[in-house]
Amino acid sequence: MSTATDTKAAPEETASEEIAPRAEEQEVVPAIDENLQARIGLMITPAFFLLLLIGLVYAWTTTEFDPTTARILGFEGLVDKFGEHLFITFWSTVFVVGIAIPLGIALTRPRLRGIAPLVVTFASSGQAIPAYGLIVLFLVLLGQGTRTAIAALTVFALIPVLRNTMVGLDQVDKPTIEAARGMGLSKWQVLRQIELPLAVPVILAGVRTALIINVGMAALVFLIGGGALGETINSALKLNRPVAVFIGGALVALLALAIDFIAALAERYLRPKGI
Amino acid sequence: MTDALIHLENVSKTYPGTSVPAVAELDLRIPKGDVLVLVGPSGCGKSTTLRLINRMIEPTGGRIIFDGEDVTEVNADNLRRRMGYVIQQIGLFPHRTIAENISTVPNLLGWKSDRISSRIDELLDMVGMDPSIYRNRYPKELSGGQAQRVGVARALSADPEVMLMDEPFGAIDPITRDRLQNEFLRLQEELQKTIVFVTHDIDEAIKMGDRIAILRQQSQIAQYDTPEAILAQPANDFVSDFLGKGAIIKGLNLKRMSDIEPDRIPAVRQDASPDEARRALDESSDGRILVLDEQDRPLRWIDRSAVEGDQPLANSGYEVTAVVEPDDTLRDSLELMLQSTASSACCIDDDGRYRGVVRIEDLTRFLAAMQQAERERRAESDYEPEQVTLS
Amino acid sequence: MDGLVSFFEYIVDQIDDIIELGIEHAIYILSVIVCGGIVSIGLGIWTRNQPIAREVALAVASVFLTLPSLALFVLFIPIFGLGFWPPFVALFMYSLLPILRNTVTGLAEVNPAVMESAKGMGLSSRQVLWQVQMPLAWPVILTGIRVSALLTAGIAAIATLVAGGGLGDFIKEGLTRLGLPNGVEAIWTGTVFIVLLALLFDAAFVLLRRLTTPAGIR
Ligand SMILES: Nc1ncnc2c1ncn2[C@@H]1O[C@H](COP(=O)(O)OP(=O)(O)OP(=O)(O)O)[C@@H](O)[C@H]1O
Ligand SMILES: [Mg+2]
Question: How is domain A84-270 classified at the CATH fold level?
Answer without folding.
Answer: MetI-like fold (1.10.3720)
